[in-house]
Design brief:
By secondary structure, this protein is of the alpha/beta class. Strands 1, 2, 3, 4, 5, 6, 7, 8 and 9 form a 9-stranded mixed beta sheet that branches. It is globular and about 60 Å long.
Amino acid sequence: MSEIKISAIICTHNRDNYLGAAIDSLLAQEFAGEFEVVVVDNGSSDRTREVAEQRASNSRFKYVFESTLGLSVARNTGARVAQAEILAYLDDDAVATPHWLQVLYDTYQTNSQLAIAGGKVTLLWPAGVEPPQWLSPALAGNLGAYDLGDSLTYIQQPGLTPRGLNYSIRRSFLEDIGGFDPALGRVGKNLLSNEELQMTELALNRGWQVAYIPQALVAHNVAPERINRSWFFNRSWWQGISECYREQLAGKAGIGQFKIGGERFIRGLYKAMKYYNNPAQSFDNLVYAYGQVGYLNAVIQNLLFT
């Protein structure tokens, strides 16, 4: 059998309604060479295993069950099971375009210093649903949207790092840093995040490169339960907690975080009132301010219990 050049990995938890389309978009890839598709079932209790078994006859397909909850844990399991040097991660509710793997693979082949790469992400709205007026472009990013333009771009600011739903990484770099950090990333249905941002920081600090590749296009389904304001508040709360955890892991925790979080909270509230007549901009800033409450809550927890 020829060498597997790239491994496509889906980490999934209780999302059987989208999973089949995600897997099929990978099995149908137009790729010049051998590739594999690995599904990591992260403790699902729905029909995930059944959906996977329906595709088990495909020689490219592998299924593995990981009982320890956590996206970072599942990603590390996928990397361990996969065979290729280039690992491409697709979310279980996303659909890859036919040349996704080829575009990613070719970019790595032309740049030996590339550690991480991801592509443009568009949104797939439920049938009959239009984006609400209060949804700003920035908040659409919380639903997965990611667009830095139509040209290959090398990331210098960690905040612009590729989305985890359309994400690839070089195995040698991943092994060098010890894998994805289980302290960051979703666990079950909580919204802890920032693991990709941390990975970009680590890559840049070690002299690697991180790229945005617009042709590596993926579409991400917008789940109906996310089309309401409360979901965005919850998402922002967890984003604040994630930012606090990331700073702790980087050795930046301390009393100074109160000043940072407090200033951000006040700025968010001020702008929410300032742009009251602009529903999207006002709501965007209100959500931002609420996220700082989550950040400050995590700061207090860290100071009290460590």
